[in-house]
């Protein structure tokens, strides 16, 4: 798992490291990393490094210092470097001296030919950023047509929430140092492709604020049958979804569970005939009380918010197995919190709301601080909460939060949430801890969306069909 740290954590870790590191060494390490990435971008976009033109936009702090030192390293590779100094009187002195020593030039926002650059390096502001780009920097970036490499983070974007509240840099790529910060995972659109340069901060960092799964985490967690397994030992998934009028949710959720793991899936509900006709391997019954033993229940998609749905939910919650409550089950819990009384407190509950369901469940919309909102909800409900969206978040009551890596927006299609709940149910039944089941399920769901789409719109059925390839992809990347 990759960790993500707040700017406050990074700053205090940096202070400890600075105290035991020779003066200027960390900045040179950071800046060298920026120059290497800059050279790669120049090769890609201009076809060469020597002879190209790079413009640095340097603010008043150490972020500007990084950019100036990166300019120094690029000069040594034959690049013509010019720095726009936004605050000439408080520019980083050593960085400026190094750039000048290497033959770099400086100028004002008006005098430098920003439009003619092959690459622009954004050193306006880093982890001490507050608020959007100020008008002087905004005017410079308005003239940029070249790719932009952001130093540490795109200036104008909030480092801890990724929020954009005014003018901000939209980077082609970002080079960050020591640790990923929330902006990099919460606002990947404005960071572009982010690279992390190791400046030796690792040992100084404590518990991360956020976590992100790698393919290796997904591959390690995904349940596969072993020689001693049979259809029961891998965990039987129970799906209580759909209705006679709306059988689609039942078919999608049950099928997703079938696609996600080997073993067995039971379906219980009014769409039993339809589910059976599409997926003969599903053991389907009309009533949840006749379903037989399962190791986890998925309950909610399409069950309705009336008496029948409420009874199904209460029954699932009373079976002493983990429950993934989705869609109508969430609305039912919001309207009748007493339904949770049926739950054995020792059995895990996982809720998978979208923003509207989250508002119903907690009384307020997630707002701009989605991480804080989902963390508070998980703590208050004593449940794992997966907040759906472009960057799906998964929080557990203890405070750990995973942020899922978006792979396009292909999953914004009707029924894709039903597919997600089926996948998560299968992982819960296999015995994965709920927080990991939700995070790993969201990862494979996003991979399946991307594989199904391959550049053109897809549908929930397409996402469903791509689940095996998504699992194969994660396993191949991890191998
Ligand atoms: N501390 C360290 O050990 C290291 C720090 N490094 C760099 O240092 C940066 C942090 O440097 P600083 O703490 O000096 O601060 P910054 O360079 O992030 O910001 C400098 C100043 O800009 C002003 N500012 C805030 N918001 C602004 C806005 N929206 N528009 C314009 N100006 C704004 C503030 O007065 C702030 O103090 C990191 O992001 C990283 O790039 C790297 O050199 C690696 C080592
Ligand atoms: N813009 C987006 N980018 C990436 N994923 C998205 C986007 N919009 C929605 N999704 C994902 O699609 C799924 C939609 O689920 P849900 O809202 O329950 O829809 P439905 O009820 O139609 O199944 C969720 O997994 C969500 O995270
Ligand atoms: K920056």
Automatic annotation (TrEMBL):
Membrane-crossing residue ranges in chain numbering: none
Reaction(s) the record says it catalyses: (6S)-NADPHX + ADP = AMP + phosphate + NADPH + H(+); (6S)-NADHX + ADP = AMP + phosphate + NADH + H(+); (6R)-NADHX = (6S)-NADHX; (6R)-NADPHX = (6S)-NADPHX
GO molecular function: ADP-dependent NAD(P)H-hydrate dehydratase activity; ATP binding; metal ion binding; NAD(P)HX epimerase activity
EC number in record: 4.2.1.136, 5.1.99.6
NAD is among the record's keywords: yes
A biological-process GO annotation: metabolite repair
Domain of life according to the entry: Bacteria
Cofactor(s) listed: Mg(2+); K(+)
Entry binding sites for (6S)-NADPHX: 62-66, 126-132, 152, 249, 302, 354, 418
Positions of AMP binding: 388-392, 417
Cofactor detail note: Binds 1 potassium ion per subunit.
Domain YjeF N-terminal: 10-207
Residues annotated as binding K(+): 63, 122, 155
Keywords: ATP-binding, Isomerase, Lyase, Metal-binding, Multifunctional enzyme, NAD, NADP, Nucleotide-binding, Potassium
YjeF C-terminal domain ranges (all copies): 214-474
Subunit and partners: Homotetramer.
Function: Catalyzes the epimerization of the S- and R-forms of NAD(P)HX, a damaged form of NAD(P)H that is a result of enzymatic or heat-dependent hydration. This is a prerequisite for the S-specific NAD(P)H-hydrate dehydratase to allow the repair of both epimers of NAD(P)HX.
Family to which this protein belongs: In the C-terminal section; belongs to the NnrD/CARKD family.
NCBIfam families xrefs: yjeF_cterm (TIGR00196)
PANTHER family named in the record: ATP-DEPENDENT (S)-NAD(P)H-HYDRATE DEHYDRATASE (PTHR12592:SF0), ATP-DEPENDENT (S)-NAD(P)H-HYDRATE DEHYDRATASE FAMILY MEMBER (PTHR12592)
Stated name of the protein: Bifunctional NAD(P)H-hydrate repair enzyme
Organism: Saccharomonospora piscinae
